[in-house]
């Protein structure tokens, strides 16, 4: 395929980015990321992990139609979920901030080379598998670091919203550093006004420290005509627990056309780490929804459990793929990756392909995917109770999607996420 | 209440009608009556209840069925249910992801809507369901569990009866509601069915075993072999069956 087209305008943007005020370590970080991005190129269908989503073509088309230049600050989205902890980003710029102590938010360039040495080293050493993460690191005009200090128990979910109000491209980058023994819940929401085309590259990079617990929900309710390219990377330290919910929420119009790809790259770096993921989406119209989940078991006694429930109707496309990788010489790892999917029309398509790659002997792993239609026996059973077909289908659809929901530990957040999910099938409040 | 005249039914296949299962069945059930049908495995007893419920796996190839004075066979399964016909499944269908209370609410309100009644709200349903649970001897946590998923055999049967208690049908078809139950559970089932007896409600139960009949004392007992009723009588027929077997009676 050779070099792809949008590298040139993106390189021009990176070159034009003012960075001389930044500390040396950060300039080096950005330069390394830029080099990696150029070497790897933009992801597209020729990449195995991107087989179904052509980010290179999406970017090319967006560049031709709207340009890729960053957009200035716009208006805030209304708070998605009520909490004392709110961060609002507009077009990638921090527009408002409200955080309870002891949560800290710092611009990346304000990290202290001594005080934050561990964090800076981790960022420097991180081997991004997805070149969009490198692009975000090279190009983001604002990168923010959220620090949950050691042993802090944050009760109120931290709500981070990214919102667009004008046409254009944006890059959001959030680094989350959860120190040993801390516990927090983070909701990251992506939304925009329906009036314009937006392209968003959103990079979230997380470290969950020893014995720390993070629950993370990534809610896409991007506007019509928008494209979302998300990369979520996480490293788990000893006995850390990360629980992730990914979902597509919000109302779907009949001609919904959002394109969305979220890649989750998780590394269990030390013994006893646990990763749980649940995902749910109901694609309609011409939507394209792609969840890619990769988990590396690089230590002993790790556990991962992933389940994604997908529905595709209209001419939409759903993708659920990824891989559990068990490294050599590791012991006692458990990995589970399943995806159940429903096809509602002849023109819709679902590609579900969870994979395993095992290089150790002592493992318990399984993976599986189903793509099917509504179960006629279930519909008949409901009919014999007086429930008509339309209502029976609504009930089964709701039940099917709910199986892809995580219990976050915050009941109000569970209810909010469920309502967001059900809104996409015309249910909920 | 239910009048079946010369009913014939076959398995539905892609190429038309398959093997005939019901071969000329006649049955007349009056309001308030309890009928029991006994018959050997594979005789078509269960098929009869499925046909009456409107299961598309079976095609009616002849005969008539009237329910409450109206033609039953023209109606869709949901309409039959709304008219007051209830089938307690021999093997209830699991519906993962849908909670029992959500299911009960949808069922009760679908039928209330058909009767022109206002829907019950979540609390009213919960109240009704709890009273029913007590009667079928299940605890309240049952309502939050997904419908028939990971239920034991006995729990599934009791869940069918719970639905029957809430839906208050005019005609109850109980397909082997006693199979796989221990003595205590059998008594619960018997008590629930007896509590449903009413001059305006009819019950048709399919069973292999006499022991449930000892709890319920049906008004009529029918012996069913090879797709039709071959003998009808009272409880004495069930006793005779025990002595001489199906062959003895059919002869």
Features:
A: 429 residues, alpha/beta, ten-stranded mixed sheet, nine-stranded mixed sheet, 8 helices, 21% helix, B: alpha/beta, Rossmann fold, six-stranded mixed sheet, globular
What does this protein look like?
The complex is a heterodimer of chains A (about 425) and B (about 250). Chain A is α/β, with parallel strands linked by helices. Helix content of chain A is about 20%, strand content about 40%. Chain A has one domain. Chain A has a 10-stranded mixed sheet with strand order 2-1-5-7-9-11-13-15-17-19, covered by helices on one side. In chain A, strands 3-4-6-8-10-12-14-16-18 form a 9-stranded mixed sheet, with helices on one face. In chain A, a hairpin with a 2-residue loop joins β1 and β2. In chain A, α2 packs antiparallel against α5 and α6 packs across α7. Chain A is globular. Chain A starts with 6 loop residues before the first helix and ends in a 6-residue tail after the last helix. The model of chain A has no long low-confidence stretch (mean pLDDT about 95). Chain B has one domain: Rossmann fold (3-Layer(aba) Sandwich), CATH 3.40.50.300. Chain B contains 8 helices and 12 strands. The longest helix of chain B is centred in the last third of the chain and has 16 residues. Chain B is globular, with a radius of gyration of 18 Å. Chains A and B meet through α6 and α7 of A and α2, β7 and α3 of B.
